[in-house]
């Protein structure tokens, strides 16, 4: 995942440096604006652009993460109005490639954040900023095994099948569990990043698997729905639950014991470093192929520690 630039991409980065003198809009386009996680990306992007006299920043995204066509339109609209650069969190690894290619052909630098594009789209952007989702999934799996042991059933409540972050995060969680234990995986189930869907799915999973020992909610809305379902079923704290992301709902679940932990990404950093990387490209500077924005496992014991508080939102 970290070797994302080919020789051709290095050449493209140099070609794009010709646009360095062009001031204007940096478009930050995320998977949805209806999420605290993505609003924290917005905060980071806003912090990066503050004090810039030559560039402005716009923040946009579709109503839901599953509205892929709407996100494609947002990228195409940004290209058509001649933005100086694009920071993009693609909702689909394949569907966004033509739009990113169009930006490349228009000499508009693109920095991808959070979820990657498929291999055939990697030559059209200049840098990828993300949580190492495979490492994050393994971290969550290790925590799960330490809490429940090496046997029993663990359910996986995922979000959108096939998204780059989901493939790494959930895929490596499942593989680690299978490699390191005799735990039976139940699922995964896909909420489409809808909290209410995750709540209903979790309620059904709990009813169908009364012997469940653990459950993993793999992104913010899914983990919130999972936590609420556990509380409604009277199983909060009885089934080991681990979430992903760090808004106030998930923090409260960690504090009251509904969640044994939640893995928190550097969402602020994705926005901040994403915009900073575009600015460097516009100045003709070289940028890293891949930037790991990190993950922290927040538990009841460490949630008030400064290193954890810095990534919560």
UniProtKB/TrEMBL annotation:
It comes from the Bacteria. SUPFAM superfamilies: Periplasmic binding protein-like I. Its main location: other. One of its GO terms (molecular function) is carbohydrate binding. Residues 26-286 form the Periplasmic binding protein domain. Keywords: Signal. Gene3D superfamilies: 3.40.50.2300. Belongs to the bacterial solute-binding protein 2 family. This is D-allose-binding periplasmic protein. It comes from Roseibium aggregatum.
């Amino acid at each position: 995942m970290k070797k994302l630039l080919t020789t051709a991409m290095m050449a493209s980065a140099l070609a794009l440096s010709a646009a360095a003198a062009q001031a204007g809009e940096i478009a930050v386009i995320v998977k949805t604006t209806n999420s605290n996680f993505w609003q924290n990306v917005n905060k980071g992007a806003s912090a990066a652009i503050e004090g810039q006299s030559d560039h402005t920043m716009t923040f946009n995204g579709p109503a839901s993460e599953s509205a892929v066509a709407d996100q494609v339109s947002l990228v195409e609209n940004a290209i058509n109005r001649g933005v100086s650069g694009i920071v993009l969190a693609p909702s689909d690894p394949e569907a966004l490639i033509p739009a990113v290619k169009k930006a490349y052909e228009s000499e508009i630098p693109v920095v991808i954040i959070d979820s990657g594009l498929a291999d055939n789209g990697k030559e059209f952007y200049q840098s990828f900023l993300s949580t190492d989702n495979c490492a994050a999934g393994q971290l969550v799996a290790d925590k799960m095994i330490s809490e429940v042991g090496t046997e029993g059933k663990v359910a996986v409540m995922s979000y959108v099948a096939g998204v780059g972050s989901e493939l790494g995060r959930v895929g490596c969680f499942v593989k680690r569990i299978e490699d390191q234990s005799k735990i039976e995986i139940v699922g995964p189930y896909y909420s489409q990043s809808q909290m209410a869907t995750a709540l209903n799915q979790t309620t059904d999973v709990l009813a169908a698997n009364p012997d469940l020992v653990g459950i993993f909610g793999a992104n913010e809305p899914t983990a919130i729905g999972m936590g609420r379902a556990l509380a409604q079923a009277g199983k909060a704290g009885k089934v080991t639950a681990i979430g992903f992301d760090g808004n106030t709902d998930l923090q409260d679940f960690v504090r009251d014991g509904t969640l044994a932990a939640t893995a928190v990404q550097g969402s602020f950093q994705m926005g901040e470093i994403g915009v900073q990387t575009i600015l460097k490209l516009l100045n003709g500077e070289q940028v890293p192929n891949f930037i790991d924005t990190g993950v922290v496992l927040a538990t009841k014991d460490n949630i008030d520690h400064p290193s954890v508080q810095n990534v919560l939102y």
